[in-house]
Design goal:
By secondary structure, the protein is an alpha/beta fold. A seven-stranded mixed sheet has the order 3-2-1-4-5-7-6, sandwiched between helices. The two termini are 14 Å apart. The protein is built from six helices and seven strands, in the order βαβαβαβαββααβ. The longest helix has 22 residues. Strand 1, helix 1 and strand 2 form a beta-alpha-beta unit.
Length: 227
């Protein structure tokens, strides 16, 4: 049965880093994948506003190109302030998430892990939890949380917020799609050995695959699954 799947990401490139292989796999299986970005991803960098406006357009164009490689059904953007989403009431963000749920009717939502270092990631996670309360009319049956290289793994071990995956997606046939998609984010990617480099992403996928005995995988934590 074909499903509607909603990916909720703070910034363009989070979605491919976290679950680009799974997106490609789900699209290949005939599911409808929708991607929504909540923060602008640019303006905290400072500098000339006109230049930042141009960078925002470039990054959104890169997102459309990256997700075009993966074949998603739709892409949408919101304008919560980059790296300042902790200044926004969770309810305000949750209302946006609720509107997206109402629009796309997803059975599955995939979003950020609660322990990420980036404040926007954490706020998107919190808002998703609020929007996915188990009320009778809620269509969401599965909530998964992905890891984002250069945020998730940078959390200190003694915080109790570490990423401990308990759900894996075999992306052995789709790792090349993931890296091809990431190449569209050339302004956001970094050189090896930065964790947000193509090589590091490949190494992580191989390691996650080795954990479950396949060539490549993506790892997730389960928020909730209802069957």
């Amino acid at each position: 049965m074909k499903k509607n799947i909603l990916i909720l990401a703070a910034h363009p490139d989070d979605e491919v880093l976290g679950c680009g292989g799974a997106i490609a796999k789900y699209v290949n299986q005939g599911h409808f994948v929708h991607v929504a970005f909540l923060a602008d991803g640019i303006y905290s960098r400072g500098g000339d506003k006109d230049k930042l406006d141009m960078e925002l357009c470039k990054r959104r164009d890169a997102a459309r190109a990256a997700l075009g490689v993966l074949g998603v059904e739709s892409v949408s953007f919101n304008d919560f302030p980059d790296n300042y989403m902790d200044t926004i009431a969770t309810l305000e963000v949750a209302k946006v998430v609720e509107a997206l749920i109402s629009k796309h009717k997803p059975e599955t939502i995939i979003t950020h892990h609660f322990g990420d270092v980036n404040v926007d990631h954490r706020k998107v996670h919190e808002a998703t939890v609020v929007a996915c309360r188990s009320q009778p009319e809620n269509c969401v049956k599965c909530v998964l949380c992905f890891e984002v290289a250069s945020s998730t793994e940078w959390q200190f071990a003694n915080t109790g917020k570490n990423f401990s995956p308990n759900f894996f997606v075999d992306i052995s046939e789709f790792l090349s799609k993931k890296t091809q998609s990431l190449s569209k984010y050339d302004l956001e990617m970094r050189d090896w050995p930065h964790p947000r480099s193509i090589q590091a992403v490949e190494h992580l996928a191989r390691w996650r695959g080795a954990i479950i005995g396949v060539d490549a995988a993506e790892a997730f934590t389960v928020g909730r699954i209802i069957e």
